[in-house]
Specification:
By secondary structure, the chain is mostly helical. Helix content is 48%, strand content 8%. It contains 4 helices and 6 strands, in the order ββαββααββα. The protein is globular, with a radius of gyration of 19 Å.
Length: 174
C-alpha cells in the first residue's frame, strides 16, 4: 500500500484498523488522516460510489451462487430461483467492472441498478403467483431487501462527492 500526495495511507484488510496502531511502515495510523480506500486486486477503489458498486459487485454473485446451492431460499428467508440467481451473478459482475473502470461507470451502474431495483420493489408489491411479471420468484423479505438496495444504489449514484464541481467549474449545488 502506498501513501497518496496528501499523506493518506489506503485502507486494506491487512492495514491497521484502529487509530494509534502501528501501520506496515511503523507510523501511527491516525483515524482522521486515514482515507478509506479499498484495494481490490491491486486497483484502488477510493470513492464512496465505487465502493458501493464494488460491495454490491462482490455480494451479489455470492448470493447468486448461494441461491443455486440452497435450492430456493437464501438464509432460509429470501426466495430465489434460477433466473433470480442469474440476475444476481450478472449484476454483481457488472458492478465490479463498473467500480474498476472509474467513477463515471460506477455512478451510471448505481443509477441504473437503483432504478431497476426500485421498479422490482414496486412490482413486488403486486406479484402474480409470487413472481414478479411471472419471471422471478419473490417474497416479502426479498421485497424489503430490494427496497433497501435501491435506496443505497440511488444514493451512491446520485450523490455528489465533497469538493465536486459542476460542468461550469462551480462547486456542486452552487
Amino acid at each position: 500500500l502506498r501513501e497518496d500526495d496528501r499523506g493518506f495511507k489506503p485502507f486494506s484488510a491487512s492495514s491497521a484498523l484502529w487509530s494509534g496502531l502501528p501501520s506496515s511502515r511503523g507510523n501511527a495510523v491516525r483515524s482522521r488522516n486515514q482515507a478509506l480506500i479499498l484495494e481490490v486486486h491491486g486497483k484502488e477503489v477510493s470513492s464512496m460510489t465505487k465502493q458501493i458498486s464494488m460491495v454490491l459487485g462482490i455480494v451479489l454473485p455470492i448470493v447468486g451462487l448461494w441461491g443455486y446451492i440452497s435450492g430456493g431460499l437464501v438464509l432460509g428467508l429470501f426466495a430465489v430461483d434460477g433466473l433470480h440467481n442469474t440476475i444476481h451473478l450478472v449484476s454483481g459482475v457488472i458492478g465490479i467492472l463498473a467500480a474498476r473502470r472509474g467513477e463515471t461507470y460506477a455512478k451510471t451502474y448505481l443509477k441504473a441498478f437503483g432504478v431497476i431495483y426500485a421498479l422490482v420493489f414496486l412490482l413486488g408489491l403486486f406479484p402474480s403467483d409470487e413472481k414478479i411479471l411471472g419471471l422471478i420468484v419473490t417474497n416479502a423479505a426479498d421485497n424489503i431487501l430490494h427496497f433497501v438496495i435501491a435506496l443505497v444504489a440511488l444514493y451512491g449514484g446520485f450523490s455528489k462527492a465533497k469538493g465536486a464541481t459542476s460542468s461550469s467549474g462551480m462547486p456542486a449545488g452552487a
